[in-house]
Amino acid sequence: MSTSAIAPPARSRQARRRTAAGEAHRLLPAPLLAIITVGLCVLVLVPILYIVLASLNTDVGVAEGEFWPSSFSGESYTKIWTTAGLSTGILNSLLVCGLVAVASALLGTITAYVLVRYTFVGRVTILRGLVGLQSVPGTLMLLPVFVLFSSAGTYLGVTVIGTRWGLFVAYLTFALPFSTWVMVTYLRGLPRELEEAGRVDGASTLTILFRIIVPLSLPAIVVSGIFAFLLGWNDVLFASVLTRPETQTAAVALQIFGTTQEGGALPVYSQMMAAALVCAAPVVLLYLLFQRYLVGGLTAGGVK
Fold first, then answer.
1. CB under 8 Å to 261, separation ≥6 — which residues?
2. Which of 172, 185, 202, 282 is the most exposed, having the fewest neighbouring CB atoms within 10 Å of its CB?
3. Is 0.85 surpassed by the pTM of this model?
């Protein structure tokens, strides 16, 4: 029997396998999948559209229930800087959360490299501890953290509560375990041959880490840094307790601004919507800038 007589059935079997695999991955019919996708998009985009339109409307128009403004105005975007005090809050949030993102990504990468590439006593315990720390709610840690920071001010004479660096330490405590675990998962997929080739060329451990591992792990580093940034940017609980008016973050300023409008004769809904969009803008910009790295970091780690 010739090879040409066997090849077509083999190719047809491979084609059938690919077709069967594709059908297995498609759990829903195409029309139903399209309907669900459109429904989810509408569910997400309609509230965002309402917030944008309300921020461009007047406070009276929003209070009357207008979805489409009768007259567009950007006056709310100029008022919020004095009424809501967002300038100080956004500056504090950018400073603290940016430092947390950089420190968490850097320390997480170094720690994960040691945990993945070296064997020592307690290594497995540390890895299990990283997973266990993710299950501890932040609300349970608020009182211990506050007492610890207060004790540091009492016994060491160091002011922690009410400072930016105190908030930085608190956020880093929660962001570092997650960043380390993300990097551990990613570094496990990197081939050791690259490091062995570097050692053959005489590279030190630090040279291998910063010239080989870090460039290859950039997507995962960006993911861990962004998640650390978001952890601090969206936090209200710790920032409300560990800051004072001059060090409060944007989330706290937005919460205070919204709370002060409750019970008023005419709540400034338009300004509240504008303030919410301004606070969300840095996160959206951050995602757009690092979208390529986020896609690579959230997929399967390692070099293919």
1. 267, 268, 269, 272
2. 202
3. no
